[in-house]
Amino acid sequence: MALLKPTHFKHEVPVLFHEPHVEGGFRPLHQPWGYYLASLFQRHNECLNTWTHLIALVMTLQRLYEFSQEFDLLYDPYMWPLLAGMITMILLYIGSSGAHCFQSRSELVHYTCFMVDYAGIGLYGLGSTILHYAYCSDPWLFSFMKHLYLPVAIFLSILVCVCCSISKTMYQRPYPFTRKVWQLASVILVYTWLILPVVHRLLICLETSQWDNSISHHLQQMVWFITSGFFFGSDIPQRFYPGKFDFLGHSHQLFHFCVMMTSYKQLDSVLLDIKQFENQIRARPMPSFFSTTGAVVFVSFANTLVVMAFREYVKRSHVSSSKKQNGCQNGIKHDKNS
Ligand SMILES: [Zn+2]
Question: Model pTM greater than 0.90?
Answer without folding.
Answer: yes
